[in-house]
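Troubleshooting entry. Yesterday's outputs looked truncated, so today I'm pasting the complete records for two proteins to confirm everything comes through intact. If either block looks cut off, that's the bug. Protein one:
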Amino acid sequence: MNGADLNFAIGRALGSEVSGSERLAGRDISGATRLELADGRKIVAKSGPLVSVEADMLRAMAETGAPVPGVLANEGDWLAMDYVAPAGCADKWSALASTLRTLHQPTDHPYGWDADYAFGPVSIENDRSETWSAFWAERRLLSHCPHIDTGLASRLEHLCEGIDSLLPEKPLAALLHGDLWGGNIVWTRDTAFLIDPASYYGDREVDLAMLTLFDHPPESFFDTLGLDTGWRERQPLYRLWPWLVHLRLFGDSYRVPVERELSALGY
């Protein structure tokens, strides 16, 4: 759908014509546009084959009470959401901890999600599983083996043979953001809003592992989350997946962190 057709469809759905637009840089791989409507509202629009999946993720996150942009309309390959304006936050890590405690409430959902997702050309397999260690091995690690060199693939396969000794079989399942890094957090005056999810149900420690790829929360942030014993030892295993995604998306410069995490785990 071209820009004019998208603006027309959104204007019709929201009852006000689009009067201006601005491309938002750095939000996610697919990109997003901030639109101003004739009635003065500012919204965010995205288009693509997976925006309906994202809309379902945002709705599920909103149901937990976590602060996320509200879904205004979703028709076919486009999505319109509330625009959340960033503002200075006096204690951003405390605000984020509060958001994650709300999002990560225990559930009885099986691990995974009802639809697959993707980061650009890299697919995210989400078939449900009753066993967490099997889900992580099959959906998050071994799924990369056909797309990377045989040396790394062999190390991953060896790791997954012993994964039951590294991960709990059935940790409490929480709704995850799934791509939690600083660029997907909008801090307002006293709240941390989460945007651009790649959600599924799993161990909440995964979100923390992704957060520490590029960001450096203070120890007080982790202390307030009441994490399970051994969570630090599991972080390299959970960081492996996003590093593998980066390796496939952006090339061999990300081989070093993949190898670093494997070595930290003894593989």
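Protein two, checking that the full record survives here as well:
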Amino acid sequence: MVGTSEAPSGLIAILRGITPGEVVEVGSALIEEGFHAIEVPLNSPDPYRSIELLATRFGTVCPVGAGTVLRPEEVERACAAGADIIVSPDTDIEVIAATRSLGMRSYPGVATPTEAFGAVRAGARSLKLFPSEALGISGMRAVSAVLPAEVELIPVGGVDETNLADWRAAGAGGAGIGTAVYRPGDSAREVRARARRLSKIWASTP
């Protein structure tokens, strides 16, 4: 596994499209089934309210994050709502700096060694490998081979039950799981069943 001075990220649920009315029930199912963090993308309905509800209910046991964060002012608003982590689709130095200055964990999106090292120099230690389905496991291994040992790579995009074990075995410090665990309109019961299967795969893969 790629090393990190912080705890490895593990499984991160990406709840794109979630609403405040359902987020607590879905979040409870995810946590009870072994997911390690929950991300609410900012292009979801009323995302800051969903983040606030998750942080209030589960913040002491599970990190809560904002996703698709593109500007420093969004970092500040997410922090005020109770977020612990900030996830972006790109490598924006200002967003990383704002995240770190507020004591939160930064997950900038990277697709090349140049972007990865730019993110590391800005203070990030958990890098979102995106889109991972295009880069592949061999791409992750190539990038991780040249990064500092304390930096972890988190594949996002196309990670599901069919390939999660392969990503973990290849050294991923975690994985961002989107539609493979939650799609808008899914019930908490459906999410729980998928989360259980994914957590079992993650936990049983050396």
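Both blocks look complete. Sanity check on protein two: The two ends are 9 Å apart (CA to CA).
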